[in-house]
Amino acid sequence: MNTHFKHKTPLLRQLKDVDMQMQYNKITNLKIATKKISGIVIQPGETFSYWKTIGKTTKSKGYLNGMILHYGKVKTGVGGGLCQLSNLIYWITLHTPLTITERYRPSYDVFPDTKRTQPFGSGATCAYNYLDLQMKNETTEPYQLIIYLTDVSLVGEWKSVSVPTKTYKVYEKDHQFILEQWGGYVRHNTIYREVRNRNNEYLEDEFITENHAITMYPPFLTEGESYTNKEL
Predict the structure, then answer these.
(1) How far is CA 33 from CA 94, 194, 203, 211, 223, in A?
(2) All residues at 6 or more sequence positions from 19 whose CB lies less than 8 Å from its CB, including other chains
(3) Is the pLDDT at 231 greater than 80, yes or no?
(4) Phi and psi for 155 in degrees, rounded to 5?
(5) Collapsing DSSP states into helix, strand and coil, what is residue 129?
């Protein structure tokens, strides 16, 4: 099997005013969910559904209270923290020929960027069972999704039998914080991906999505100094 794209995100992040126990509980939740997802194969013509694969997160399945975001506020809920998994799957899928058929952008930007390596808004907000992440295999060969945890990271990759014929560079344009008339800021950007062939020759530039999110923190450290993108 050949890897099309592989990426990892840190399991623990120190977030302002958020109990670290919620982060540890999230790890438990991720371990349970990844057992449902890792190894799944999407055949040509098939569609993968995040929530159909995982199912409802309940205490009886071993899920713990973790952090969830509800209308821009930090709360706790059973199975909280699984957006890290949906974010990762969405990100690695953008680097494959698979087609995203359902994805929801964040409505609120809750935390300032800390060590971000991906563009703002390059994840997928999920909530059972009405905000799903789905992708369709419109290629001619099966794709396998591999997800696992190390001591410090959540790791995901897409594999197929054939060697990848294209590479994808996902990036943002028009990133800005816009001061609205009601006194708050809205964060905006657009996401594109540059497609190249196996010889690194440019093929095309594809529009992916546009993001708008209400900013829940002061977007500028000092006048003229903004947060920079460092890590999702």
Answers:
(1) 21, 31, 37, 27, 43
(2) none
(3) no
(4) -120, 140
(5) coil
